[in-house]
């Protein structure tokens, strides 16, 4: 018989509620635990049709296993709040400002009898709180704009043709890329696959090229039903000539096309009774 759990061992199951929560070793252990749980769930599944469909979509035999074995922050952290606190705690500017704010609060408490000291400290405290809010908004509110990161994300989308849960693998790969390249403080930038999908959709929507030319005459010609493919290719070619980054634009066009096809195929399999052309 397995030994009974001691009362003192209960603390090990609540490690995320203690100061040890921010220990990198414990995060790594919890990461492995999340992977083992997904592997266990995968072993309980016996549907070969889903496995074959996933493998065929990525053109590799172990694609479905890869998708199920990745562990994202949503699987690792107890809640989104704990994830956000962990991210902020590993951000150097945030930690520095938090330290300064803590020192100012301590000065106010220790020298509360000195009105001049308290007044000056309160002024600095308000100033640093404003700076703290601006830093948080700038770091966590503005998306990463690195060009290579965008091309990497578009390349992952083109290669894997993700739809639904398949975005988990793309999110995991992009998290590792950002951390390895020093573009983010932790390997947990995307909280889940859906966050990565939102980022991709916004990237294509904001930076995607308009393949229609600017002149009204050409607009009318290209909107006619008998517009040839050669004319469309010429329009795209002229756009690339005037584009500041033709490589990025080429990836944007290809990724948007692949994503439309993958989404259409995904939802067609979800609702086969809806007979769409």
TrEMBL record:
Q: The organism sits in which domain of life?
A: Eukaryota
UniProt xrefs under InterPro entries: DUP/COS
Any one Pfam family here would be DUP
**Which keywords, in A-to-Z order, does the entry hold?**
Membrane, Transmembrane, Transmembrane helix
Annotated TM spans = 94-112, 118-142
Q: What is this protein called?
A: Uncharacterized protein DUPC
- Native organism is Saccharomyces cerevisiae
Tell me the lineage of the source organism: Eukaryota, Fungi, Dikarya, Ascomycota, Saccharomycotina
């Amino acid at each position: 018989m397995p030994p009974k759990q001691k009362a003192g061992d209960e603390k090990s199951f609540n490690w995320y509620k203690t100061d040890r929560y921010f220990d990198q070793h414990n995060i790594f252990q919890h990461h492995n635990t999340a992977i083992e749980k997904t592997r266990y769930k995968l072993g309980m599944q016996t549907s070969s049709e889903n496995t074959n469909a996933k493998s065929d979509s990525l053109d590799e035999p172990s694609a479905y296993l890869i998708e199920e074995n990745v562990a994202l922050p949503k699987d690792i952290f107890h809640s989104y709040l704990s994830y956000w606190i962990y991210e902020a705690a590993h951000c150097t500017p945030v930690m520095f400002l938090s330290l300064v704010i803590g020192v100012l609060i301590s000065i106010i408490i220790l020298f509360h009898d000195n009105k001049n000291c308290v007044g000056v400290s309160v002024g600095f405290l308000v100033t640093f709180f404003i700076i703290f809010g601006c830093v948080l908004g700038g770091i966590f509110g503005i998306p990463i704009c690195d060009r290579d990161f965008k091309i990497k994300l578009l390349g992952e989308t083109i290669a894997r043709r993700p739809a639904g849960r398949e975005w988990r693998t793309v999110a995991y790969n992009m998290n590792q890329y950002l951390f390895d390249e020093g573009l983010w403080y932790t390997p947990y930038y995307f909280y889940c696959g859906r966050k990565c999908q939102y980022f991709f959709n916004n990237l294509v929507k904001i930076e995607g090229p308009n393949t229609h030319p600017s002149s009204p005459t050409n607009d009318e010609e290209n909107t006619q039903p008998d517009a040839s493919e050669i004319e469309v290719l010429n329009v795209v070619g002229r756009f690339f000539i005037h584009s500041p980054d033709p490589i990025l634009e080429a990836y944007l066009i290809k990724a948007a096309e692949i994503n439309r096809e993958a989404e259409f195929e995904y939802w067609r399999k979800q609702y086969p009774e809806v007979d769409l052309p």
